[in-house]
Specification:
With 110 residues, this protein is α+β, with helices and mostly antiparallel strands. Helix content is 23%, strand content 16%. The protein is built from three helices and four strands; from the N terminus they run βααβββα. The strands form two sheets. It has a two-stranded parallel ribbon. A two-stranded antiparallel sheet has the order 3-4.
């Protein structure tokens, strides 16, 4: 059959999902090209499954809203785990949606 074109895929607080080969294939696919991954740098879930077991994020860049409300794009550093990780930061309505709504009225940062 006829497969519809993917417009955009938004993920919020996604864990690591596969090995390097899987992630490379996903990123090069139509789905990967359409994916925007949003993170809260303090979100514990975004640092699961263990990098030591070869798990990676499917996309090399993540987007987040900084403390001043600007949208930032950052390369993923799989080896870095910040201090202060919490499950509270994984709450969609508190951590992600409130920041995105605030950022919607401000300019994006480089």
């Amino acid at each position: 059959g006829n497969i519809p074109r993917i417009a955009k895929i938004f993920t919020y607080g996604s864990p690591r999902v596969g090995d390097a080969q899987f992630c490379q294939q996903y990123e090069n696919s139509a789905a990967g090209q359409a994916t925007l991954q949003w993170v809260d740098p303090q979100d514990l879930v975004t640092h699961l499954a263990p990098h030591s077991l070869q798990y990676r994020h499917a996309i090399r860049f993540q987007h987040y809203v900084d403390a001043s409300g600007c949208v930032r794009r950052m390369p993923i550093d799989e080896n870095k785990t910040p201090n202060g990780l919490t499950l509270e930061a994984h709450r969609l309505e508190k951590s992600y949606l409130s920041r995105l709504l605030t950022a919607g009225s401000q300019k994006s940062a480089p």
